[in-house]
Design goal:
Strand order of the largest sheet: 2-1-5-3-4
Order of helices and strands: EEHEEEEEHHHHHHH
Largest sheet: 5 strands, mixed
Number of helices: 8
Structural class: alpha+beta
Mean pLDDT: 96
Radius of gyration: 20 Å
Strand content: 5-15%
Bound molecules: iron/sulfur cluster, FE2/S2 (inorganic) cluster
Distance between the termini: 60 Å
Shape: elongated
Length: 248
């Protein structure tokens, strides 16, 4: 396949970026999108140019780092896949593909397609954990009965990989699907009850401090989320927040 790539190039966080056009040839439909980017970078290196900087790690849809905008969509045209799992067979010979970084105040561009998503880490550190008493008397986890529906919903929420597609696809740059998932995975389990009040208050406070917008229920986040995280998690977070606020 021959393609025309229009890639956002930006030298550093303060530089003014622009779209640069690169023709590319020999792309196989079985390649992943990141393998196609590798081909581009090899070509650029061979031509003495600087390769395009982009984040990637697992290339298995687990780490959430391969975040980029492809033809105006977070992770590209396929549903429920990350960029590393997107195959080039989704494109046609002769296509033009525009590739840009995620754009949100909470995700400043570091270079080219790489953005700083440490805001998500700070939100997680604000309360996205449970304390475990390791005094030696810890109850066996399997002895605590948990309703199947709650276990399933908690597991579904825990599949959020922190990629930030929800933020990038939201017109308000809201991080509420991410935070909702991280609150929900503990709110539904007895182990999460101990810190339930402080968790939601602290995580929402940190989310606001990081410059993310509010949710106006447009649902773009749910559509673009590669892990199918449901809007129900935002509703649960709002209920948790209201209840925690009333407790003071
Ligand atoms: S909720 Fe979905 S889109 Fe948002 S960070 Fe988690 S996995 Fe990514
Ligand atoms: S590189 Fe890890 S999810 Fe894509």
């Amino acid at each position: 396949m021959k393609l025309t790539l229009k890639v956002w190039r930006q030298k550093n966080a303060t530089a003014k970026g622009s779209i640069v056009t690169y023709p590319i040839d020999g792309i196989d439909g079985d390649m992943s999108f990141l393998e196609m980017m590798d081909v581009l970078n090899n070509k650029l290196i061979n031509e003495g140019e600087e390769p395009v900087t982009f984040d990637h790690d697992c290339r298995e849809g687990i780490c959430g780092s391969c975040s980029m905008f492809i033809n105006g969509e977070a992770h590209g045209p396929d549903r429920l896949v990350t960029t590393c799992q997107l195959h080039m067979r989704k494109f046609k010979d002769g296509d033009t593909i525009t590739i840009e970084p995620f754009r949100a105040a909470g995700f400043p561009v570091i270079k080219d397609l790489m953005v700083d998503r440490s805001s998500f880490d700070r939100i997680q550190h604000a309360g996205g954990f449970i304390s475990v008493n390791t005094s030696g008397n810890t109850q066996d986890a399997n002895s605590i009965p948990i309703e199947k529906e709650n276990a399933d919903d908690a597991f579904a929420a825990a599949t959020c990989i922190g990629c930030g597609a929800c933020v990038a696809s939201c017109k308000n740059s809201s991080a509420m699907l991410f935070v909702g998932a991280k609150v929900s995975q503990f709110a539904l389990l007895p182990q999460g009850e101990v810190e339930a009040t402080t968790r939601v208050l602290n995580m929402v406070k940190q989310m606001d401090e990081e410059g993310f917008g509010n949710c106006t229920n447009t649902g773009a986040c749910e559509v673009e989320c590669p892990k199918g995280i449901s809007l129900e998690n935002i509703a649960r977070m709002n209920r948790e927040y209201l209840s925690a606020s009333l407790k003071g």
